[in-house]
Amino acid sequence: MKARLFFPLLAGLALLLAMSSCSNTRHFTEGQYLMTQNRIAYTDKNPGIQTSELHGLIQQKPNKKFLGFLRFKLWAYNASLNGKDSKFRNWLENTVGERPVILDTSMAEATCKEMEKYLGNVGYFYSVVRYLAVYKKNSRRAHIHYEVTPTSPYRIKSINYDIEDPELAGWVSKTTKHSLIKEGKTYNVYTLDDERERITKYLNNNGYYGFVKDYIFFEVDSAHNSKEMDLHVKVKNRTMPDPDSAGKFIEERHYRYEIDKVVIYPNYDPAKPLLQEAPHDTLIKEIHQINRNSPANYYFVLYRGKLRVNPKILTQNILIENDEPYNLRDVQETFKRFGYLSIYRFANISFEEPLPKLVPDSGGFKKLNCKIQLQRAPVHQYSIEAEGTNSGGDLGLGGNLTYRNRNIFRNGEIFQIKLRGAMEAQRTSNTSDESQQTFLFFNTFEWGIQAEVSFPRFLIPVKMERFPKYFRPITTVSAGFNFRRRPTYDRYILNFTFGYKWQESAYKAHIIQPFNISSVKMYPTPEFSRELEEIDDSRLKNQYTDHLITALQYSFIYNNQDIKKVKDFIYFRADIETSGNLFYLFNNMLESKTDSAGYYTITGIRYAQYARLETDFRYYWMVSRTNQVVFRLLSGVGVPYGNSDALPFEKGFYLGGANSMRAWIYRGLGPGAFANPGINIDQMGDIVLETNIEYRFPIYSFFKGAVFIDAGNVWLMNANENFPEAEFRFDTFYKQIAMDAGVGFRFDFKFFIFRVDFAVRMRDPSKPPGETWVADKGIWFWNFGIGYPF
Fold this sequence. Notes:
Helix content: 10-25%
Shape: globular
Largest sheet: 16 strands, antiparallel
CATH superfamily of the domain at 6-149: membrane protein fhac
Radius of gyration: 33 Å
Strand content: 35-45%
C-alpha cells in the first residue's frame, strides 16, 4: 500500500517539535538548568572497565528521546502548561508528558560514590571518580562530565578451599575445574557471587537438600602494597533448632539426602484436607521401570473417588526416584513435565524428613519423603476466536472454532479439532479477470478443518530408554482439509502428518516428521489459465497443476533466550526436507508406467520430488530492558529433480509483504532482476537470501516504534527464457539485491501485538541498469501485521 503524504506530515511534525524545543526551559527559575547529557571519560586508557555498567549507576538521567533525537514527552509536558485547565491538558501533563530533569549536582556526587564502590567491587580499589558540570547559560542547559581515574586492578594470586567437613570438601573439589574464579584473574565481587550460586546448584544436584548459597563465604588476604590476593573459600555449618532446648540453636554439618518415598496426589484440591488427614478410597503402588536392566522405582498414588488418569503417565513424567540422592534438577524437570502435561493446572512438590529423624554415619544419607500434589484442569475446552488475518500485509478477517480434550485416552493425550474460516482483500498485479468473485471488498477466501492428537511420549518404533531422561518427547498425529480461493485459482489440500518433537536441552529442540503427506488439487481461473498458456512456461504450469507431496522433514531449533534476564540471545532454525525419493525408487525398480508427460503418478496424481534446505538466524542485541536491535539472516535453496522439474507451489521461496521486504507486495519481488510486465503470477524462486536489521524502542506505554532496513531477493536455480536475468549466478547475484528502509509502529498489548510498517524502496533490481537506486521516488508502502516480523 502506498502513502505519499504520511511521511512528509510526520517530518513536518518532527520539525515543528524540534523548533519548539527552545521553549523547554522557559518555565525555569533562576539557577535551574535542563539536564541534557551524561558523559564518562577516563584520565588514561580504559584498563577493561565496562563503561555501560558505570552508565547504569548514574542517578540523574536526561529526559527520554523519541527516535533518538526528539524529547517528545518533555515537549508535551511544557505544552500542557499553557492555556486553561482541562481534562486534555491534565492528560497531556500527567500521562503523556514528562517533567523536565533539572540538574542536581548532589545526585552527581552520589553517582561518583556509587561508581567508586562499583570499581572496588570489580578489583579497581581506591579508584577516584570526579564530576564536572558544564553549563550553557544562554540556553539554560547543562551536562555532566564524569572523569574516572582507575587504579591498576587487584588480581587473585591463589585459591584455597578451607572446608572442615571432609565429605562436603570432597564434593566441592570435584567441581573446581568448572570454577568461575581463576588464579591470575581480576578480583570481582559479582563473579564470586556467581561462583557461590554455581557451587550451590552443584551440591543441590548431588544430594545436598536445603543447601543455600549463604553458607558459602570468602575471605581475602592481600599483602601490603601488593596488588595480589589470596582467596579462601569457606562453608559454614548449618544452624538448626536444638531439639533438647526450646529457643536455642545448634550447628551441624551438611548431610546428603536420598529419597525414601514418593507419594502422588493426582486429585489434589487445595480447598480440601490432604488424604492422610481424611478418609481415602484407594492407594496404588505403581512401579515404573524403563527397561528390564534398569532399577524399579516405586511410587504411591493416593486418591479418593475415581482416578481418571492412568498412573503410568504420572510416573513416566516424574524424574524423582526412590533410593536415589536428592537432585534439584530432577525436581525442576518434573515441574516442567507436569506443566507440559495440560491435564494439570497446578503442581506442587515438597519434601520432609520422616520421623524419627536419624543421624547417619559418615558418608551416609538422611532420608526424605517427596509429596507431589497435582490439581486437575478441566478436560473439555471450547473456544471461539475472531482474528485479523495478515498474509504478507493483505488484511482480512478470520475465525476459529476449537474443541480440545486434554485427556482423550486417559494418558494425557491432547485431542484437538479446529474449524477455520477467513477472508482477505488480496492485492494483485492484474485485476482484469472478470471471473473473480468478491464479497464486500474481500477476494480471497479460506476454510478448513484440522484434527490433531498429541501424545506426551514417543510412540513406536521409538523406545524411551534410548534417550536421556531429560528429553520431553511429544508424538503428534494430524489430518486436515483446507480450501482456498484466490483471485487466480482455487486450491484444495488434504494432508496427513506423523512426527516427533523433543527438547534436548534448555536451548535445543528437534522436530522430525517421517510422514508429511499433502494432496494438492489446483483449479486456475479461465483468465489465469490463458495467461499460463500465453507464457508457455513448463515450470509455471507444473506449479499450478495437481500434485502429491510425500515429505520427510527434520528441524533443529536453537534458542538461548532467558526470559528472566535482559541479555543478548540467539535464535537459529534449520529445516531440511525431501520428498518423493522412495516412490521414485520403487517406480524405477518396478519399471512403472508414466503419464503422457513422462512423469510417475500415484492414483493419477503426479508426486513431487525435491530436496529443500532453509535456515533462519537471528541475533537479538538487548541495548537496554526496553530497547533492542534485531539482526536476521534468512537463506534457503530448493532443488527439484527426478519426477519434478519445479518446486511445488507450497515449497517455493518468496519475499514481500508484512514480514519480509516490506516495500514489496506479498510474493511480489524477483526472481533476480526479472521485471514483471503485468502478468498476474506469484513471483517465487528456488533460492532465497534476505537480511534484516531492526531497531525497536518504546514511545509511550504500549505504543512502540521501530526503524528497519530489509535487503534480499529470490532467484531461479536455472536460466529461463520467460524470466530473463532471474537465475542465480555468483558473479551477478549481489547486483540483484533489493533494499528498502522504513519505520514501524507497534501496539503491544502483551497477549497481542498489532503492527503497521511504512517502507520505501531504496534499490529495485527490476529497474534498468543505472536506475536501480530509487529512493528519490519517495513512494511509501505500508503493511499491517500481527506480531513481530521476526
